[in-house]
Write a structure and sequence with these properties.
By secondary structure, the protein is an alpha/beta fold. Helices cover 37% and strands 17% of the residues.
Length: 312
């Protein structure tokens, strides 16, 4: 049994991670400032003696005694991370410094939730970890992309300078129950629109691609990375390799939900990556990890969640 800190623990991925760690018998400290997360995601854990909720902003120092840290605190959807860009970059950079300081003091192993946005609008496809990326440093997505890039730098500098035990995963688009219904990401947007008989908003012409990983697969990847051999730091890509255009995704969701929704085309946001798909050979070779859940199965589970959710 370990004492494990999950920052961003009341968010979409964080709350699923807390569930898994509690089920495995660990003591979990869930830290969140509830910017995009919700108490609803972790209410079912509140009575558990192995679970503790801490309302805190990672940009401020905090002193805790832990064995492992999963650093997930950061808004993830463009609408939210662009609504307060200065806070977004502070969360990535100052948050990483504080969590690395905590890991340095306690000797805890620390995992960073990095992102495929490290690759920006990629010029090579699929994306491998050795690719350095094509990122705009001054655009509306930069607060997130450059913040996450700087956090990776800090992780590797703390490792080189102070010998920290670090793990870095680069997460590609992940979806599932507990996504925020209004967080603007494509899967939740399309499902909520279709359930409400509204038209699905495709940004641009819809031929841009993404590869969608179901949340349970992603959490398996986090746990395997955290428990991996001590020399393996990453960064390692985690994501699904099945690539779809946004038009294909929209049509799939309309077909599954039925109703009268059509597709409406609206303006493409600035710097929207055109293609994205991970090369996951490193994760497979080092962690024995690859996703098992298809987009169709994952969408059905997610649609059921949004159908039952009182929030829409
Ligand atoms: P989310 O928005 O649901 O969760 C993020 C959580 O962090 C929220 O609970 C939020 O309240 C909390 N948070 C934000 N700023 C904070 C701060 N300053 N202090 C404390 N808590 C703070 O998003 P998610 O999809 O669960 O993403 C989790 C992590 O995974 C993020 O770091 C994100 O960048 C990364 N990621 C996610 C995806 C994805 O597709 N879901 C893809 C790439 C990377
Ligand atoms: N820190 C923290 N919790 C701890 C240890 C450190 O929040 O348990 C913060 C601390 O406030 C500092 C940051 O982490 O600002 C970086 O710590 P480090 O030891 O690297 O830097 P220093 O304290 O030497 O500036
Ligand atoms: N997108 C869309 N309609 C929406 C929301 C998003 O067409 O209602 C597009 C968006 O422009 C991008 C893709 O879907 O090309 C994935 O967007 P998301 O915000 O989910 O993730 P990210 O851009 O970070 O990969």
């Amino acid at each position: 049994m370990k004492k494990i800190l999950v920052t961003g623990g009341a968010g979409f991925l964080g709350s699923h991670l807390c569930d898994r760690l509690i089920n495995e018998g660990h003591e979990v400290l869930c830290l969140d400032n509830f910017f995009t997360g919700s108490k609803n995601n972790i209410t079912h854990l509140l009575g558990n003696p192995n679970f503790e909720l801490i309302r805190h902003d990672v940009t401020f120092p905090i002193y805790l005694e832990v064995d492992q840290i999963y650093n997930l605190a950061s808004p993830a959807s463009p609408i939210h991370y662009q609504s307060d860009p200065v806070q977004t970059i502070k969360t990535s950079v100052q948050g990483a410094i504080n969590m690395l300081g905590l890991a340095k003091r306690t000797g805890a192993r620390i995992l960073q939730a990095s992102t495929s946005e490290i690759y920006g609008d990629p010029e090579i496809h699929p994306q491998v970890e050795s690719y350095w990326g094509n990122v705009n440093s001054i655009g509306p997505r930069s607060c997130y992309d450059e913040g996450k890039r700087c956090a990776e730098t800090l992780f590797f500098d703390y490792e080189r300078q102070h010998g920290l035990d670090i793990k870095v995963v680069r997460i590609f688009n992940t979806f599932g129950p507990r996504m925020h219904p209004n967080d603007g990401r494509v899967v939740s947007n399309f499902i909520v629109q279709a359930l409400n008989d509204k038209d699905l908003t495709i940004y641009g012409n819809g031929i841009q691609t993404r590869s969608f990983c179901y949340v349970d697969d992603m959490i398996d990847g986090f746990l395997k990375m955290m428990e991996s051999e001590s020399g393996f730091k990453g960064p390692v890509n985690l994501g699904n390799c099945d690539e779809f255009t946004m038009l294909e995704l929209a049509n799939k969701i309309i077909k599954k939900i039925g109703g009268n929704s059509k597709i409406s085309f609206v303006t493409l946001p600035t710097d929207d990556p055109k293609r994205r798909k991970p090369d996951i050979s490193l994760a497979y070779n080092k962690l024995g990890w690859k996703p098992k859940i298809s987009l169709d199965y994952g969408l059905e589970k997610t649609i059921n969640y949004f159908r039952k959710s009182s929030k829409i």
